[in-house]
Amino acid sequence: MDVSQIDINSLFILKHLLEEKHVSNTAHCMNISQSSVSRALQKMRTVFEDELLVRINSGYELTPKAETIKHDLNLVITSLEVLVHKQSFKAETNASTVRFFGLQPQINALMPKVINYIRHHAPLMTVSLDTTARRHFEALISGDVHFVLSSHQPTYSDQSLYQMAIASRDFKLLMNRENPMANKTLSAEALVNCNFGQISLQGERTLSFEHKFIELGLVDKKNRLSIPVQLSNFSSAPNIAATSDIIFHLPSTYANEACRDERLIVKDVPKELRLDFQMIYLYWHKRFHDDPMCEWIRSIFKELYLEKQVTA
Question: Which of the four pLDDT bands, split at 50, 70 and 90, describes residue 3?
Answer without folding.
Answer: low
